[in-house]
Amino acid sequence: MEYQIILLPRDDYWSWVRACRDYVMHYGLNLTKDPGTAGRYMSPAQVVTLPRSPDGYPLEGDIEEWFQTQFPGVRLDIIEAENPEELEVEFRQRIEEQDRYGQKRKPFYLLWPTDFPVITQPFGTSIAVPMAKCIRCIPIRDLIPTAFMFVSGIRMDTRQYMDTWPSRLSE
């Protein structure tokens, strides 16, 4: 389940709320004008959707940077909308396309194969592991019947490896 909250600018708040009405009703979301409330809402599993409007969050300054320092790892869905009318158009398009976060229109996006809600390290960070400490992969007949596995650096078809895997557990 996704926990999403929409953060709206304090100035002219009710105009922004009216612009979100259909989107909020369609997805059953919450609204706030307080960035701290948005950051704490269902943390760390939440997505904070917000319009990028000039002077929308004057107390916080750069709102993206503020979230990264105050609530590291929070997932932000930033919409390029300078006024409520632009936000309403964006939300209407998302509803029509059944694209909750507008990802299908972005030039590149990942379908992450996990529901783990917290990013534990930034993208591009890797851990160097000496070859002597590599873990051997033991294929399991029921889970990966025809997959290719890397075992001791040699690419093998798991069907050839299946007959001997119980004895290799003790190696």
How is the largest sheet built, in terms of strand order? 2-1-3-4
* Secondary-structure element pattern, one letter each: EHEHEHEHEEHH
Instruction: Count up the helices.
Output: 6
Please state roughly what percent of the residues sit in beta strands, choosing from under 5%, 5-15%, 15-25%, 25-35%, 35-45% or over 45%.
15-25%
Cα-to-Cα separation, first versus last residue: 42 Å
Briefly say what this structure is.
The protein has 6 helices and 6 strands. The chain is α/β, with parallel strands linked by helices.
Describe this structure in words.
By secondary structure, the chain is α/β, with parallel strands linked by helices. It is built from six helices and six strands; from the N terminus they run E-H-E-H-E-H-E-H-E-E-H-H. It has helices at about 15-25, 35-40, 65-70, 85-95, 160, 165-170; strands at about 5, 30, 45-50, 75-80, 150, 155. It has a four-stranded parallel sheet with strand order 2-1-3-4. The protein has a two-stranded antiparallel ribbon with strand order 5-6. The longest helix has 15 residues, at about 15-25. The two termini are about 40 Å apart.
Summarize the topology.
Layout: E1 3-7, H1 13-27, E2 30-32, H2 35-40, E3 46-51, H3 63-70, E4 75-79, H4 84-97, E5 148-151, E6 154-157, H5 158-161, H6 165-168
Parallel strand pairs: 1-2, 1-3, 3-4
Antiparallel strand pairs: 5-6
Helix pairs in contact: 1-4
